Q: What sequence folds into this?
């Protein structure tokens, strides 16, 4: 292989890895807290925004209390 084709393969691998990480992060809800913060600031400007730790604790408690909202 030539150096140019090796660079192309490396770029393709890096791009695939980024896409995989983006997909996996979406499945796990990685952007959910940021969306929550934006929602609170936009729709409830005077309200206190929960910390990320509190947000996830409450979210998991809600999921445990209402298991019908998840697939398994």
A:
């Amino acid at each position: 292989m030539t150096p140019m084709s090796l660079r192309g393969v490396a770029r393709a691998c890096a791009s695939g890895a980024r896409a995989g990480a983006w997909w996996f992060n979406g499945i796990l809800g990685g952007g959910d807290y940021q969306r929550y913060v934006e929602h609170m600031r936009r729709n409830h400007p005077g309200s206190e925004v929960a910390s990320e730790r509190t947000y996830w604790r409450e979210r998991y408690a809600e999921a445990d209390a209402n298991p019908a909202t998840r697939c398994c």
User: Anything to note?
Assistant: The radius of gyration is 19 Å. The chain has a mean pLDDT of 86.
